[in-house]
Design brief:
about 10% strand
């Protein structure tokens, strides 16, 4: 009888282990699959100044559009490729077709400036880094823009012209088109224009029509924006609130709904992200976590892109990030037309 009791005790103990073990293993599996907290380093002031150098001297509203659109690098690529395939569309017809696209308003707005859009596509690693910085350090990005403008001003390279109006509101430098119907995109060397030379952003590709070899600023063709006034994403809907360090869209603070980039300020240390976390690209493309490239700079969502800007992730499109060639040296291959004028200062 004692022997039977011992066997029964062993049997019941074995059953208990068998029942509870899967739960224990499941708990261990859940813990092992939890994602660790993202500890990606913030970019330093010097890195941010280097990052915004190519656009800091653009008109305020254009800088606002670029920063917002940079949070949608996948849509930037799609929009540039779409524009290359629809060079026959111009003026109001172009605006109507763009209005049908599912892109963010900031990306649609850049259709008015095809050379700017193409530059963002060709320099996709830089674009993604800019978007990541705007998502996670937007106040610092705004400060960097003002710091670079101040440097250009002190170097004697930022003055009002017939193409743009430069004014000061306290310590804030504001840049606006001289003619509200025509926007000129300045051409300059972003690594020389600010006085003391700064380091070139790794892999930066100088895009024709936006880059000027040597010191100073030049203006080429102006972009007429009158054809796009009737759309809710056009030029007149964008601006800056420099006091609060905000991009303004439709008279309110712009909020990007892109989840290409991880907002590290909203990271849930229990193992996830608030507001849904980082989503993949439309159409089943994968989201990329921020990382650091071989140069030590934060490369953002497109760390998988090489430093020439070639987008391996878009190889299925049959085009690299250099696909489609140049747009006529920054020329306007959409509606709005050209306006003469320019010169160098």
């Amino acid at each position: 009888m004692k022997f039977i009791k011992q066997l029964l005790s062993l049997f019941l103990s074995g059953c208990l282990v068998w029942v509870t073990a899967p739960a224990g293993f499941a708990a261990q599996a859940d813990q092992s699959t939890q994602r660790p907290a993202v500890q990606a380093a913030q970019q330093t002031p010097d890195q941010l100044q280097q990052l915004v150098a190519p656009i800091a001297l653009y008109p305020d509203a254009l800088v606002a559009q670029i920063l917002a659109a940079a949070t949608y690098p996948d849509e930037v690529v799609e929009a540039d490729r779409w524009l290359q395939q629809h060079t026959d569309l111009k003026g109001e017809q172009l605006g109507q077709e763009v209005d049908k696209q599912p892109w963010d308003p900031s990306v649609k707005a850049l259709i008015e400036f095809p050379s700017v859009l193409a530059n963002m596509d060709k320099n996709l690693s830089w674009t993604s880094s800019l978007g990541d910085a705007y998502v996670n350090q937007h106040e610092d990005v705004m400060k960097a823009v003002q710091e670079m403008r101040d440097r250009a001003d002190k170097a004697g390279n930022l003055k009002s012209t017939s193409q743009e109006k430069v004014s000061k509101q306290g310590k804030t430098i504001v840049i606006e088109p001289a003619d509200p119907e025509v926007v000129y995109v300045p051409e300059y060397d972003p690594w020389l224009i600010y006085g003391e030379p700064i380091g070139i952003w790794p892999g930066w590709y100088p895009y024709p029509g936006l880059y000027l070899a040597g010191p100073g600023i030049a203006f080429g063709f102006g972009f007429g924006i009158g054809f796009f006034h009737g759309f809710g994403w056009g030029w007149g809907h964008w601006g800056y609130d420099w006091h609060h360090h905000d991009v303004i869209f439709n008279h309110t603070r712009y909020v990007s709904h892109s989840r290409i980039f991880v907002n590290r300020n909203n990271f849930n240390h229990a193992g996830g992200f608030h507001n849904g976390g980082a989503r993949g690209f439309a159409g089943g493309r994968h989201a990329f976590a921020p990382s650091h490239n071989q140069f030590g700079n934060h490369s953002g969502a497109f760390s998988g892109f090489n430093h020439g800007g070639v987008a391996r992730g878009f190889s299925s499109r049959g085009q690299s990030s250099f696909g489609g060639g140049f747009h006529g040296g920054g020329g306007f291959h959409g509606g709005g037309g050209f306006h003469g004028g320019g010169g160098r200062r």
